[in-house]
Write a structure and sequence with these properties.
Blueprint (H helix, E strand, L loop, with lengths): L1 H13 L5 H17 L4 H18 L6 H17 L15 E6 L6 H14 L4 E6 L6 H11 L4 E2 L7 H14 L4 E6 L6 H15 L3 E7 L6 H12 L3 E5 L8 H10 L3 E5 L7 E3 L2 H9 L5 H9 L7 H6 L5 H14 L2 H4 L7 H6 L3 H16 L3 H4 L4 H5 L2 H10 L3 H26 L9
Helix pairs in contact: 1-2, 1-4, 2-3, 3-4, 4-11, 5-6, 7-8, 8-9, 9-10, 14-17, 17-20, 20-21
Amino acid sequence: LGRRINNAVGNVTKSNVVDADVISNMLKEICNALLESDVNIKLVAQLREKIRKQIDAEDKPGINKKKLIQKVVFDELVKLVDCNEAELFKPKKKQTNVIMMVGLQGAGKTTTCTKLAVYYQRRGFKVGMVCGDTFRAGAFDQLKQNATKAKIPYYGSYTETDPVKVTFDGVEEFRKEKFEIIIVDTSGRHRQEEDLFEEMVQIGKAIKPNQTIMVLDASIGQSAESQSKAFKESSDFGAIIITKMDSNSKGGGALSAIAATNTPVAFIATGEHIQNFEKFSGRGFISKLLGIGDIEGLMEHVQSMNLDQGDTIKNFKEGKFTLQDFQTQLNNIMKMGPLSKLAQMLPGGMGQLMGQVGEEEASKRLKRMIYIMDSMTKQELASDGRLFIDQPSRMVRVARGSGTSVTEVELVLLQQKMMARMALQSKNMMSGAGGPGGMA
Ligand code: GDP
Ligand code: MG
């Protein structure tokens, strides 16, 4: 898709005159590419108008047309999927938050329940899971296995066949025990499709969820719109989780579902394992849809995106590089696409570390490093890492909290130390030997 859009834009620059006709043709090409990626046809038509208007609005004499068009296409697509952080559900501590998961069989609900449970547990919530899938044989065993592995309390029944009763009983039991988050897994199939939606309505009435989440497979095609609308009507979900983002799917169906239900995406799942779970980023999602990694022109745009740099630049100028800075940089890299290439932009041997392994392995390693820093306290993050050396028990705690090993924590600390040293050297060079700070 990305290559086709890029080609379309490229044709514009080849023609001497960029007139309405040329732009029209380019828009047609882009729209065809979107349609082929399973983006809904009505949505494509709307996009086309928006893009055309935006190009008109931003076009000024002397402006680089190719860049402008790339930027407008990218921005309009991001606008479709991005949401305001404030729109997202925030569970409250010291009260019961019931989260109900809905979605078709195979979408990844059960797997995602555990990921979400672990996500909240790591943030200090008391979390339990309830199995409401009484349709599929083995559904309870699957949830039980996942929950046990992740050390999450669970509730379910081998004998009760009424999903409304099981979910109600489970929620009540956890509520009594003052659980703060109760995640309710549901069935994704019924003898008759309409019955599934009715079942969701009944469960919803019984357990009164504070938040309902639709789990959507990224590889869903043109049926995305009708399907997600049916779930929206029966269970009025307030957020979406897109799974299987690791697959080579086109992703356009998911894009259509987001637009059709006008619902924010909270998380994405990028693999079968518990750690393959991250907060959604609109820019990241669209970059993947467009296959930005392959395209130099759009890469430039991504690099010029205003990714949050935190205090890193300021700190670096002062000759510092904290663990927090390290975390910011890794997070930015994760948002930007092809890792083995991007990691090379990081100083301190990270490039070599990541360049020798495959894309998947590099991504895995980077993510584990991020989990490690996610498990650190604010004080630890703001530090230069020395307090880990003074109190090695901190490393054990972080390793345990992030599901990694002490060796891996040490590696993160080592990387950060190397970068901190570089920051100091660079500052000393700037200020000149013998200048202030030159003797540090
Ligand atoms: P459910 O029927 O909606 O509960 O779906 P499951 O949670 O049972 O998942 C169906 C299949 O998809 C299982 O084999 C999962 O391991 C797999 N799966 C779930 N999430 C992901 C993901 O993000 N990526 C990949 N590759 N597979 C996933
Ligand atoms: Mg399931």
